[in-house]
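Rotation project, supervised by the postdoc (A.L.). Task for the rotation student: set up a whole-complex structure prediction and record inputs and outputs verbatim in this book. Inputs entered:
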Amino acid sequence: MVLKPVRLTMLACLLSATFALAHEGATGVVKERMDLMKRQQDDMKLLGDMAKGKTSFDAVKAAEAARDVSLTAKKIHELFPEGSAGHPSDALPSIWKEWDRFAGNATSLESAADELASSIDGNAAQDWKAGFQKLTDACKSCHQDFRAKKKESEHH
Ligand code: HEC
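Outputs recorded:
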C-alpha cells in the first residue's frame, strides 16, 4: 500500500511539530523577555542618539519611543515567572527573593517613561533630556541588582 507510509510521514511531521512547540514553550518566556529588553534598547538608542545630537530631535518619534518603553515595562512582571533563571538567562535568583523591589523597578521604569512621553508631548524640547537620563538610570539600577554581570571587571 502507498497510503500507509504517507500517513506515517504525516504523523511524524505532526509529532515533531508538536515537540518543537513544546520545546519553544520551555524557553519561550526567557526569549520573550530578551526580545522585550532588546526592543527597549532600540527605543533607548533612538532617544540617546537624539540626546547626544547624533540625530536631530523629532518629538513624534521620541514620544513614541518613550511610550513604547512604558508599554513594554508593564509586561516585565509577567515575563519573570519563578524558576525561570539559569542558562541561557542572565536573570539572578535574587529577583524572586526580592520580588517587590524587582517589580518596583519595573514600575519605576514605566512611570519614568510616562513622564518622559508627556514632557515631550508638552513640547518640553529643552528639558526632555533630564527625563531621558531618569529612564537610563531606571534601566541601570535594575540591571545592577538583578542581572548577572558579563564582565568581572565591571565596577559600580
Ligand atoms: C525590573 C528590572 C529591569 C528593568 C527596569 C530593565 N531591565 Fe533589562 N534586563 C533585566 C534582567 C533581569 C535581564 C536578564 C534577562 C534574562 O537574561 O533572562 C535584562 C536584560 C536586558 C538586556 C539583554 C537582553 C538579551 O538579549 O539577553 C537588554 C539589552 C536590556 N535588559 C535592556 C534594558 C533597557 C534598555 C532597559 C530600560 C529601558 C531595561 N533593560 C530595564 C531587568 C531589567
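Student's summary: Residues 30, 33-34, 37-38, 40-41, 44, 69, 76, 89-91, 102, 105-106, 109, 138-139, 142-143, 146-147 surround heme C (CB under 6 Å).
Supervisor addendum: Confidence is low (pLDDT under 50) at residues 11-26, 152-156.
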